[in-house]
Amino acid sequence: MAALGGGIYIVHPSELVGPENPAKNEQGDPSFNLSFVRDIKTKGKAFQAIMERLRMLAIYAKEKRLKVALENMGWWSEEVVAKTVDLLNEVRSDNIGLCLDVGHANRSHNAKRMIRSFEKKIITTHLHDNHGEETDEHLLPFLGSVNWRKMLETLKENEYSGVLLYEPLTRGTPISVEQTKHSLHRIRLLWEEVQKNPKEKPRP
């Protein structure tokens, strides 16, 4: 991946591979897809298994000159966010961070608090929009209910300086080149404005 110019590998934490999934352990499944919903809330064997696999992944990523980003999913509660940050603090690797998926954060209805809770562990982003409901619409930014100014202001407060990566999907509805260009232009202008004039707000 690094040879192709890619520097960050994004993981959807979804399926546990650890003591609670013995079938996959017996098969020697090396998957690093993780399940936080049930197991990250405790300090039990499953949590320890997740942590050890992340440490292994961090070593491998460093050897390959890569970083790995765990992406927040639409069902992440504030507790899951906090436990994920705890997990990364225990792993203690510069090669493991977080991918802020703005659309998923909007569906969790705690986007601003989520970004702040992520501290400075966000290493990349996924930008897309939705209406904060069950369907993961993956609309172009500004076509849903995300408050993009507040979102970018909060990213700035967290001293984020990485890329703003678009992730819209057509879902059967074509997206024109002109629509995409217009959305990109608005995001670029808004980000530049936030960089020059960040909104100063005391953290709660």
UniProtKB/TrEMBL annotation:
Pfam families: AP_endonuc_2. InterPro entries: IolE/XylAMocC-like, Xyl_isomerase-like_sf, Xyl_isomerase-like_TIM-brl. SUPFAM superfamilies: Xylose isomerase-like. The lineage of its organism: unclassified sequences, metagenomes, ecological metagenomes. Transmembrane segments: none annotated. Residues 2-185 form the Xylose isomerase-like TIM barrel domain. This is Xylose isomerase-like TIM barrel domain-containing protein.
